[in-house]
Amino acid sequence: MADSTSTSLPIILVPGLNCSARLYAEQIPPLWQFGPVTVADHRRDDSIAAVAQRILAAAPPLFALAGLSMGGYIAFEIMRQAPERVAKLALLDTGAGADVPERTAQRKPLIAMAQQGRFAEITDDQFPLLVHRRRHGDTALKALVRAMNEETGPDAYVRQHLAIIGRPDSRPGLAAIACPTLILVGDDDQLTPPALAHEMAAGIRGSRLVVIPDSGHLSTLEQPQAVTAALVAWMKS
User: Fold this and answer.
1) Whole-angstrom Cα distance, residue 99 to residue 187?
2) Which of 14, 29, 54, 123 is a Cys-bridge partner for 146, taking CB atoms 3.0 to 4.6 Å apart?
């Protein structure tokens, strides 16, 4: 297992589906004390394996890795391809399983909307699923989500969905993860609910599970201070 005790450890943050670097805007400055922070570009490939390969090609030899939602799926693939390069792992609002048929069926109309020139409608369609029920009327948060969607764009959005649909089941590999691991989830996450976080925590020996109160799927934006505190503690572990 790689040594993570060096004074400076680069950190790679992987965003979720249809999200940009803005997803981690509140976390980057506090994490900078531990080493240079990079937000990975996950927009250019239509398979999780290819995204992971691209990230690894640009990554330093040893780094801490955090991913939210789709970013977590990519993090699992990075762990398969180069586990010796990951000193610490954080899995935020994600799950280890493959895409289930009902979720794949829900994705296909969204792909069609993006391909038919209706990409701008997707924010309105998906926003209530992304955030805590108390934030459904939060216009500032919705504007932030819309900005991330625009920075992703319809073509990349389609590629990301195809990658998610084709992702492998990462649960068989959970027991092999030996680096310090944080598992974090919003208590009202509708897309990757806390049960999935508990499943990962049970499978990764020594992992730390944090459930963020009053948060949905976009925990880094909804409860940034609580998420940042958990990530800082993870980096100090």
Assistant:
1) 21
2) 123
